[in-house]
Amino acid sequence: MLAGRQIIEAMLDRLDPRRFTQHATDAQGQYTFHGQNLELFESTAPEVVISGAAGTGKSLCALQKLNYCAWRYPGMRALIVRKTRTSLTESGLYTFEEWILGPDNPICNTVRRSHRLAYQYPNGSLIVVGGMDKPTRILSSEYGLIFVQEALELSEGDWEILLTRVRHTRMPFHQLLGDTNPGPPTHWLALRAAAHKTVLLHGKHEDNPMLYNHAREEWTPAGIAYLARLDQLSGHRYDRLRWGRWVQAEGAVYPMWTPHKHLVDPFKLDKYWRRFIAVDFGYRNPFVALWFAVSPDGVIFCYREIYMTERLVSDHAEQIKALSAGEAIEAVVCDHDAEGRATLERAGLHTVAAKKDMSLGIQAVQKRLRYDDNTEPRLYFFRDALVETDKNLADAKRPVCTEQEFPGYVWAPAIRTDSIREVPVDVDNHSMDCVRYAIMYVDDPGTVAYQPRYFKGLFASRDRMVQRFPRGRARRKARP
Ligand SMILES: Nc1ncnc2c1ncn2[C@@H]1O[C@H](COP(=O)(O)OP(=O)(O)OP(=O)(O)O)[C@@H](O)[C@H]1O
Ligand SMILES: [Mg+2]
Question: Which ligand is nearest to the CA of 204?
């Protein structure tokens, strides 16, 4: 045990400004920035976004700029923001704490990352943290610098609201800066850059010294390995994440998919709404389970998601039961994998076989996603519904959730010109299959429309008809 004097000395040491300033750095600090990253670091333009392939060092550079300004301009206020606060925890905040502040830094080692509201610097500077899903807290004040991580996720309205929050506060310039991987060329961000409202920088892998050795002018071993992984990507993901190009996903199966329309902030679901789960089995490929709730007027909400590789079905079954505690799930609609279904049944989950007709299923999903000036979609997905991110998929830049599969789900080019059967490309389509099963379960014209009184006849007993999972101690795993 520490003696009283040692405790006081330890406390004084924590308060010693030199201990803090050892983390403060001259300009670029422990990092050297190159190319477009250097341009971003030095830019004082009011609106600047760096777009680029995966892993070019965009986020690290933007966050280091915030850290530098926080030390350089005492009393300044900055904001780190993403579309949702939850998604920031393991992306921007992880980079900021692990790579810039350092995990033992007193600025960040007091509060858990997921609960972090702000980073208070000893010189009076403050870096606030938040998501556009809960804007009230973060938008009530002004900032000298705002960093938007993955600016592509925001709507132009979000961006313009943030613009009203940047002012000169104890800094000689003010700036709204963002980073992003590229999207379609019709995205508002690309159009805003074309209209010269936003400076758009294009980062390259050569800008990241961990991947490219500038002294020797050659790729590092880490760079060679990383680029080889990105070379495995296909379609528009390859163009965007390997080469940083703003390209359209050609021939989208669901061209009406619009994140700001179909993704909704989670809300409390009525416990009497009809609920079911759709499952697509996989081990090397992801196992996907999606939880759906149907409102009384027939609108479907996907409110929870498992998307995970290399885990046994029996483990998934236990997790599904734990996550469904207290919910009345009428059935688990499954892919036709006899062994997988049997494992779920053994665990006490009542399964039904999915209707797998691809053409009918796709049309049914399209019908629900469609919207225009007079009609709203009838299928929605909760933001951040994913229970746990699969790190292997994230590292390989593969989709990690349903929302990321939608834009890349494209029709295969016709192999023979006389072919009349159109099929989507058979890659990264695991959630897409699951969504199809779910919608066919509810909408298939061949089945009797859902009426609770019919169910007694259809299933062996009422117990099998609706599964009521007891409320247990098990809770959802911590989300990133
Ligand atoms: N200037 C630098 N010096 C040393 N290492 C760097 C530098 N920039 C980036 N890195 C390394 O590269 C990794 C990836 O950087 P970062 O996450 O900033 O890339 P990114 O472009 O934001 O990637 P993504 O497109 O996936 O969001 C960092 O974790 C860090 O290890
Ligand atoms: Mg990044």
Answer: 1
* CA-to-CA separations, 229 to 233, 393, 396, in angstroms, rounded: 8, 11, 6
Which ligand 1 atom sits closest to the C-alpha of 210?
5
Long-range contacts of 24-30 (CB under 8 A, 24+ apart): 24/71, 25/67, 25/68, 25/71, 27/68, 28/64, 28/68, 29/64, 29/67, 29/68, 29/100
Confidence class for position 467, pLDDT limits 50, 70, 90: low
Which single residue is written with the structure tokens 């040491």? 13
Residue 198: strand, helix, or coil: coil
The minimum-distance atom of ligand 1 relative to the CA of 54 is 25
For residue 184, what pLDDT is reported? 87
What residue's CA is closest to ligand 1, atom 8? Answer: 57
Question: What's the rounded Cα separation, in Å, for the pair 217 and 220?
Answer: 9
Can you give the residue ranges of every domain in the chain? Answer: 15-243, 259-468
Whole-structure pTM over 0.70, yes or no?
Answer: yes
CB 49 within 8 A of CB 187: no
Percent of all residues in the chain with a pLDDT value above 90, rounded to a whole number: 63
| Ligand 1 center from residue 259 Cα (angstroms) | 26
Is the domain covering 259-468 a CATH 3.40.50.720 domain?
no
The per-residue pLDDT for range 389-446, each reduced to its tens digit, is 999 999 888 999 999 999 889 988 765 444 455 788 888 899 999 999 999 999 976 6
Q: What is the Å distance from ligand 1's center to 224 Cα? A: 15
> Which of 42, 60, 242, 404 best tests ligand 1's pocket when mutated (most atoms within 8 Å of CB)?
60
Q: In terms of DSSP H, where are the helices of 151-206?
A: 156-163, 188-194
Q: Which residues pair with 468 in a beta bridge?
A: 328
Integer Cα distance of 208 and 252 in angstroms: 33
CATH 3.40.50.300 fits 15-243, yes or no: yes
Residue 95 in contact with ligand 1 by CB distance below 6 A: yes
Closest by CA to 468, choosing from 349, 304, 338, is: 349
